[in-house]
């Protein structure tokens, strides 16, 4: 028995020594960075991660960026993208492996790191910041109602939860502008001895929005500009870098595509925008700024049986915010009958609602059939299809592939830009994203299923 206990103690001591050695190496790895930025928030994390990475590359910094949203990937110092292959739900231990591979294995010393927060649950957010990344600069893009099951039911609770990535004696940059929520963030910063920078709207942040070939939020631009200012990077350099950065596949890029047999339509994929405020903002801005005055507007609600809370929110959103502005609601994905009943009960005219479950057969509905269901009844009129709620169903994958195929053949420019240069970029982007649509959707699905953690340095 004594020998067994001695062996167990020896094994434990060896294990602790190995763990300590790895932790020391990890600390040295992180301390060697000149710039280390951790991106948290509800909306826009992937976009802001990409933009700040672009800013740093434009400033001549050897930079590694990592997103973990719709398209989880590592962006190398030359802006090359390397998709992250996952075999299960997102696990924050992935950050250790990523850091070991991309910092230790780099050809040239990495100067700057920009990483999107992987965690939703507050305790895992804290581990990501305090144990793994140790970033002196943290971003909170905004506070919106989402992930209530993990972060709290109110905006105030969600703001406090996001503050788990506030650094110790560092800097926090936020795009949130609600005074009550900013005050919560400020109090958390003061508790940890950190300085808060609120990214205010400016003439430059407003004007830059039109330079992107996808729907961009002014708040995201303001955040990237503020981080650049904290780092001493000139606004002109920052502006060039963020505009040159490739967009995340989850961004809303408007395409005007034409089917020779069925006419043209505007495709507005908002599937990754799933909070109330951002959805209404994008819908209204696209409708007001990017579409013909007489364009018909169709809302495509793509639902899943395991996302009933989100389905319920969008029923209320359509009934309360969009009914007066739209011509039709088409239901895709699952739980169509239930959502149809809820829409009618909420006051949406039953004649405005169409379903698509009748299009499914053994091979599944075709993308053309699904899109044409949205266009039915409008003949040769301009029609805009706004995709909402969820990115991952067979229906959306089929529609995306159909739209991408049309785009490769006959895409005009994204509506907001109207230039051949942006059209070519959109074609290339659409083609690349189509090939990986199912994989990206699976990654988003796994990420939403929750965080799992096993802490240990690589």
From TrEMBL:
Residues 443-458 have a biased composition (Basic and acidic residues). Residues 41-216 form the Mur ligase central domain. Residues 437-458 are annotated as: Disordered. It comes from the Bacteria. It holds the Pfam family Mur_ligase_M. GO terms for molecular function: acid-amino acid ligase activity; ATP binding. One of its GO terms (biological process) is capsule polysaccharide biosynthetic process. InterPro entries: Capsule_biosynth_CapB, Mur-like_cat_sf, Mur_ligase_cen, MurCDEF_pg_biosynth. GO terms for cellular component: membrane. This is Poly-gamma-glutamate synthase PgsB. It comes from Candidatus Corynebacterium avicola.
């Amino acid at each position: 028995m004594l020998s067994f206990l001695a062996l167990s103690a020896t094994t434990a001591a060896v294990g602790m020594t190995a763990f300590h050695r790895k932790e020391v190496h990890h600390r040295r790895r992180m301390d060697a960075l000149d710039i280390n930025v951790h991106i948290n928030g509800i909306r826009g994390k992937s976009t802001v991660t990409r933009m700040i990475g672009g800013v740093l590359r434009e400033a001549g910094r050897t930079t590694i960026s990592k997103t973990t949203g719709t398209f989880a990937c590592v962006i190398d110092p030359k802006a090359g993208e390397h998709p992250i292959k996952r075999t299960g739900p997102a696990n924050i231990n992935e950050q250790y492996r990523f850091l070991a591979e991309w910092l230790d294995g780099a050809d040239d010393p990495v100067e700057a790191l920009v990483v999107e927060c992987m965690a939703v649950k507050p305790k895992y957010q804290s581990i990501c910041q305090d144990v793994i990344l140790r970033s002196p600069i943290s971003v909170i893009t905004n506070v919106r109602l989402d992930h209530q099951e993990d972060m709290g039911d109110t905006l105030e609770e969600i703001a406090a939860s996001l503050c788990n990535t506030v650094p110790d004696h560092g800097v926090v940059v936020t795009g949130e502008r609600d005074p009550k929520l900013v005050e919560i963030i400020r109090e958390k910063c003061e508790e940890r001895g950190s300085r808060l920078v609120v990214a205010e709207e400016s003439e430059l942040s407003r004007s830059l929005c039109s330079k992107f070939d996808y729907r961009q939020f002014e708040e995201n631009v303001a955040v990237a500009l503020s981080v650049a200012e904290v780092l001493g990077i000139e606004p002109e350099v920052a502006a060039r870098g963020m505009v040159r950065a490739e967009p995340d596949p989850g961004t809303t890029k408007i395409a005007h595509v034409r089917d020779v047999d069925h006419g043209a339509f505007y495709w507005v994929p908002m599937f990754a925008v799933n909070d109330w405020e951002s959805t209404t903002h994008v819908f209204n801005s696209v409708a007001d700024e990017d579409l013909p005055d007489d364009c018909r507007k169709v809302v495509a609600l793509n639902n899943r049986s395991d996302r009933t809370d989100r389905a319920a929110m969008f029923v209320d959103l359509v009934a309360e915010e969009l009914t007066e502005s739209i011509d039709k609601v088409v239901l895709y994905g699952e739980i169509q009958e239930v959502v149809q009943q809820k829409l009618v009960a909420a006051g949406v005219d039953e004649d405005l609602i169409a379903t698509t479950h009748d299009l499914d057969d053994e091979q599944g509905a075709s993308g053309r059939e699904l899109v044409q269901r949205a266009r039915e009844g409008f003949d040769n009129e301009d029609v805009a299809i706004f995709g909402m709620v969820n990115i991952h169903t067979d229906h959306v994958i089929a529609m995306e592939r159909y739209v991408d195929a049309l785009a490769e053949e006959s895409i005009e420019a994204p509506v907001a830009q109207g230039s051949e240069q942006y059209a070519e970029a959109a074609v290339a982007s659409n083609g690349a994203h189509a090939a990986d649509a199912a994989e990206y959707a699976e990654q988003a699905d796994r990420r939403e299923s929750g965080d799992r953690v096993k802490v240990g340095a690589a």
